[in-house]
Write a structure and sequence with these properties.
Elements: E1 7-8, E2 14-15, E3 51-56, E4 61-66, E5 78-83, E6 86-94, H1 98-105, E7 117-120, H2 123-133, H3 136-149, E8 155-161, E9 167-173, H4 181-191, E10 194-199, H5 202-209, H6 220-223, H7 233-238, H8 245-248, H9 263-270, E11 279-282, E12 285-293, E13 298-303, E14 309-313, H10 314-325, H11 360-387, H12 395-399, H13 408-435
Parallel strand pairs: 9-10
Antiparallel strand pairs: 1-2, 3-4, 3-6, 5-6, 5-7, 8-9, 11-12, 12-13, 13-14
Length: 506
């Protein structure tokens, strides 16, 4: 689970998170080791340990090399080391005095046969390594197909190609011995490199592949666990776990390594329980031990032919066993009452305040808004009471307009043009009715008027209009009045011979 920021710069030094190539969680490098002795200064007469630990394939494989270049190498730097008939490129994973402890743990001796560090990796070394590493996935697929064609019962887990491409290591798992003499010849001709076959166990395979365990974290074998101890079902029985192969097995198909983590604690707790109290006798019969509850320090018994279980304390079980040795059978087991209700949850000081958090600034704004609305309603009520007539108004009050109302003289001026326009239309209607006496209207020059003249509507104050003469057009307001284009009602048509009113033949 390497982070995206970690990587190697152009000069071979680590880049990204700037933690010298190793995160505190160890995710950037499998089986990472924290150097807790790095900040402890050494004496002037002591020289730093000249052997370093180098990891390959992101911690999949580690080995020790002697630093003969006398250069100060930091953790995370890329170095070029001796390989099989060539060179290999790896990452410095550990330096200093802690390397001695790691060599002692892995039983590696400080001998002159220890391989050497050649130099810091150059750009050419890194480019050649990346080209050969890109061939590993394709080589794994081809190697599995070739092994299947030969009918070999083996499972290839990983292929590691040396940085210079002269050697290829194949890691495989198998239940029985495999005769791969013919397979090596096929691999050597196919990949054109020296072939090394290395058998690993199921747990090592899971560590190389990696994954997430049932606990939700990365597998222990791929992060920090380097040595594997044997695990059997006895560890599950001591911890009162159900013997369920599906739940007790890890991703490797074997029993989980974490079954051994708390085994010593359970063994220490079981020392307080009596070993010879599997069967006890009472007046009611023989009671057999069913289970031990280590957390509550209880022993559960049941009579023969009954499914009911009775919890006893460790002290009570020892007393009954002591009485049985003396030939005494107690009348009752005197079981302990076990509360099946859920325990009360302790208050840890946590309170769910979702939806209850309020900001003072928002509260003040809301209060101001409410007060403002209240004041506006009170003002409206007061103005409504003032509008109601409370008695005869004085002349001064009539003359002074209220707030929000127009003056009386302005209102009268606005009403007068409307009334004058209405009176003009009434006068025009009266004259038109008087002129409809059977003879057509006579215009200027004795000619009959065509249609009804429309007086343009005058707007403005009363001083600009003359209501007494509605039919006359005032100067400066007109032009010629509009004439009706329709023929007059009483005018005869001259070219119609059937019309009796036609006077053309007279």
């Amino acid at each position: 689970m390497a982070c995206a920021g970690c990587g190697t710069g152009g000069d071979g030094k680590p880049s990204g998170c700037k933690s010298n190539g190793g995160c505190s969680t160890g995710g950037c490098n499998r089986l990472n080791v924290f150097d807790w002795l790095s900040n402890i200064p050494l004496g002037d007469s002591l020289a730093p340990f000249d052997i370093i630990e180098v990891s390959f394939n992101n911690g999949s494989r580690k080995d020790f090399y002697r630093n003969v270049t006398k250069q100060l190498l930091d953790k995370g730097e890329m170095v070029t080391v001796e390989g099989v008939s060539g060179f290999d490129v790896g990452t410095v994973s550990l330096t200093g005095e802690l390397v001695k402890l790691q060599m002692k743990k892995r039983r590696a001796e400080d001998t002159p046969e220890v391989k050497k560090v050649l130099r810091r990796s150059s750009n050419d070394d890194l480019q050649r390594m990346s080209d050969n590493k890109s061939r590993e996935k394709e080589a794994l697929i081809k190697s599995r197909a070739l092994a299947r064609n030969l009918g070999l019962e083996m499972k290839l887990a990983e292929v590691e190609i040396q940085a210079d491409g002269r050697k290829a290591t194949f890691f495989y798992t198998a239940d029985d011995r495999v005769d791969f003499r013919e397979l090596i010849k096929v691999y050597a001709s196919e990949f054109r490199a020296k072939v090394e076959m290395r058998q690993i166990g199921a747990r090592q395979e899971a560590g190389k592949v990696g994954g997430i365990g049932s606990c939700g974290r990365e597998l222990c074998c791929s992060t920090w666990l380097s040595d594997f101890k044997s695990v059997n079902t006895t560890a599950a029985r001591y911890q009162n776990l159900s013997i369920n192969q599906a739940k007790l097995s890890g991703q490797c198909g074997r029993l989980k390594c974490c079954l051994n983590y708390e085994l010593d604690t359970y063994l220490d707790a079981l020392k307080e329980f009596p070993d010879d109290a599997d069967c006890i006798e009472t007046a009611g019969g023989v009671a057999n031990l069913q289970k031990r509850d280590i957390f509550k320090s209880l022993m559960w018994y049941s009579y023969e032919g009954s499914n009911k279980q009775y919890p006893l304390t460790i002290t009570r079980a020892k007393e009954i066993r002591l009485l049985n040795r003396q030939g005494i059978k107690p009348d009752d087991l005197k079981p302990v009452e076990v509360l099946t209700a859920k325990p009360k949850e302790t208050d840890l000081g946590f309170a769910d305040v979702v939806g209850q958090i309020s900001l003072k600034s928002l509260e003040k704004t809301a209060q101001k808004r409410k007060q403002k609305d209240k004041d506006n309603r009170q003002k409206q009520q007061k103005t409504g009471e003032q509008k109601q007539p409370a008695g005869p108004r004085s002349e001064q009050e009539k003359a002074e307009p209220k707030a929000g109302q127009r003056p009386d003289n302005r209102q009268q001026q606005e009403r007068k043009p409307k009334q004058e326009g209405r009176s003009q239309r009434q006068n025009q209607g009266g004259q038109s009715r008087q002129n409809q006496g059977g003879q057509p209207r006579q215009g200027q020059g004795g000619q009959p008027r065509q249609g009804r003249e429309q007086q343009p509507r005058q707007e403005g104050p009363k001083s600009q209009q003359n209501p007494g003469q509605p039919g006359q057009q005032q100067a400066g307001q007109g032009g010629a009045p509009k004439q009706d284009r329709r023929p007059p009602r009483n005018k005869p048509r001259p070219n119609n011979p059937n019309n009796p009113n036609n006077n053309t033949n007279k």
